[in-house]
Amino acid sequence: MRILKVTSCPSISNKSTLTYHIGCLEREIFIRLFENSEQGLFSKEWLLLDQFELTEDRPITSSFLQGLVKGRSANTGGFMMAVLKNEALIKPINGKSRSYRCADPAAFIAAIQALIDSEVSLEKEPPPKKNKKG
Q1: How far apart are CA 27 and CA 79, in angstroms?
Q2: Under DSSP, is residue 86 helix (H, G, I), strand (E, B) or coil?
Q3: Which partner from 12, 33, 86, 123 sits 20 to 30 angstroms from 4, CA to CA?
Q4: Strand blocks (E) in the chain
Q5: Average pLDDT estimate for 65-78
Q6: What does pTM read for this prediction?
Q7: At residue 29, what are phi and psi to the nearest 5 degrees?
Q8: Residue 29, pLDDT above cutoff 50
């Protein structure tokens, strides 16, 4: 797996900061959660972008995303929603709290394809940051 991007975003609840990776294997795009600034556990499993079924205007839920990592921490689906929101792959449904629908993934895919073509390769496994309390 070649890591193309490492970035952070707030969780949907804004109670923690999540760090995630976007990577590729050959030309396929993958996403994984890497770190949570708080205590909530999650799966660090790489998920193929195609698994998310990002069809524009299709409703998407954290339960659906949770199903992609069966038998893993219950936080993974919600945390992955935050990642998709941060990457503008999903957007809130007006008037519905915590309801989202898929956005057009074309801009995201084009940006990641540019990283793939650039041959960028970040650290394979950056060390986790230490929690700073106080």
Answers
A1: 25
A2: helix
A3: 12
A4: 2-10, 17-25, 28-36, 47-48, 59-60, 90-92, 100-102
A5: 80
A6: 0.86
A7: -95, 135
A8: yes
